[in-house]
Amino acid sequence: MSDGSEPAFSLRVPPGEDRERSVCDRCGFVDYVNPKIVVGAVAAWSENGPPHGPGAVPLDEVLILLCRRAIQPRKGWWTLPAGYMEEGETVAEAVRREAQEEACADLRLDGLLALYDIPRRSQVQIFHRARLVTLDVAAGPESLEVGLFRWADIPWTALAFHSVSWALEAWRESREQAAFAPFGNPEGGGWVGPAAR
């Protein structure tokens, strides 16, 4: 039985707004549903020198960390270590936490790589360029396995999401630069690089 104190929501345009929102009919509370923030990293390693930035080693001497998803969506497909931010975290803290959760990996972040808008999923995705502190990685609870791939061996046709290919290509394009403007959505928004083949 209801005593009339439970919220009752309906869709309507609140005063001062320009779109429908879920509004409590009793108290006027507006339940804003906003995009989710996904963070991740292109995490690289080379034993012969820096994997990116000034003095970067040749591309074929670099290993890239990928995780094979153990959860839906796209279970069994390869992705970068990434996931949703939690309340109270900075972006950098969230990137490092996701790498630890998915690949038991410790990262040193080298700066913002890309910012992608994914409106069909109501997401904003933020990727960093990062270096693996050690090669001591292992599958976490959200990964079936993890792998360190040379560029030529990345499983391009088994990548989970378009944005994984975008971030990998952004890393390759910027890898010899110390500073650069963050990348955005590629024109057309589909697969890029070898994943487009």
Architecture overview:
The protein is built from two helices and ten strands; from the N terminus they run E-E-E-E-E-E-E-H-E-E-E-H. It is α+β, with helices and mostly antiparallel strands and 197 residues long. It has two domains: 1-33, Ubiquitin Ligase Nedd4, Chain: W; 36-196, Nucleoside Triphosphate Pyrophosphohydrolase (Alpha-Beta Complex). The strands form two sheets. Strands 4, 5, 6, 7, 8, 9 and 10 form a seven-stranded mixed β-sheet that branches. The relative contact order is 0.19.
Task: Please give a quick description of this structure.
With 197 residues, the protein is an alpha+beta fold. It folds into 2 domains: 33 residues, Ubiquitin Ligase Nedd4, Chain: W, CATH 2.20.70; 161 residues, Nucleoside Triphosphate Pyrophosphohydrolase (Alpha-Beta Complex). Helix content is 13%, strand content 31%.
